[in-house]
Design a protein that fits this description.
Oligomer: single chain
Structural class: alpha/beta
Helix content: 25-40%
Shape: globular
Number of strands: 10
């Protein structure tokens, strides 16, 4: 994997017409010596988010709704050697693509993620960020809002994301861990929107998330957990 590596950035969306252009502009403005491919996968049959995209050269795909389905569909359409799965409300660090390329050129890692950053000045979010950083390093299981990246061929060989309504990121990272393969946590923060915490309340949202991961770890199927978590930006 040389300096001219291509990174395919896959963005699963649902009702994100209001922010998708800012997200794409932010990606395409990042400095990078290789090629960048942006794939937006819309879970709405009416493709409202895709229809609002202003930039040319963006791959637009309509899929069954559900983040795991959408990311798998995007990965099938990807040409890049590296797949980066990015939430529409998450902003990458300025040198993110250069760092990813550098990490993956070493050959010892199959993928990785960034530290979590939350776009808010409230001190409570610094505690959430700190907890996420410690958790990621202890468990080696980063979450989807940390901008997971992986070698394309490895992703396909391991079977992609399990097509479940929830916890696809955790399940995917667990498979990598159980296979004995290594990921790299980049010590720079992505900046993700605080909108869900602000809408639901910081305490309630955080407690709900902790409860979901605890129940999932105890063996509760994702389909049962999905009733407590609705992925919809509206």
């Amino acid at each position: 994997m040389g300096p001219g590596s291509e990174i395919s950035i896959i963005i699963p969306v649902l009702n994100e017409a209001s922010i998708i252009n800012r997200t794409i502009d932010g990606i395409l403005d990042l400095p990078f010596g290789g090629k960048v491919e942006v794939i937006v996968v819309d879970g709405s049959p009416h493709a409202e988010t895709l229809n609002s995209i202003e930039r040319q050269g963006i791959k637009k795909v309509v899929s069954q709704a559900g983040r795991s389905y959408q990311m798998n569909v995007g990965a099938l359409d990807a040409d890049g050697e590296i797949l980066l799965f990015l939430h529409a409300d998450t902003e990458l660090p300025r040198d993110a693509l250069e760092i990813i390329s550098s990490v993956m050129r070493k050959g010892e890692f199959v993928g990785g993620a960034f530290d979590l950053g939350i776009e808010s000045e409230k001190p409570v979010f610094r505690l959430i960020e700190m907890a996420a950083s410690i958790r990621s390093r202890v468990t080696r299981i980063p979450y989807g809002d940390q901008a997971i990246f992986v070698r394309r061929e490895y992703f396909r060989a391991i079977g992609g994301f399990s097509e479940v309504p929830l916890m696809e990121d955790v399940e995917f990272m667990r498979r990598i861990k159980w296979a004995g393969d290594k990921i790299y946590i980049i010590p720079k923060k992505v900046k993700t929107s605080a909108r869900r915490w602000e809408k639901e309340g910081v305490f309630c949202c955080t407690l709900r998330n902790w409860a979901l991961i605890t129940l999932y770890s105890a063996g509760v199927p994702p389909a049962r957990l999905a009733a407590f978590y609705k992925w919809d930006a509206k």
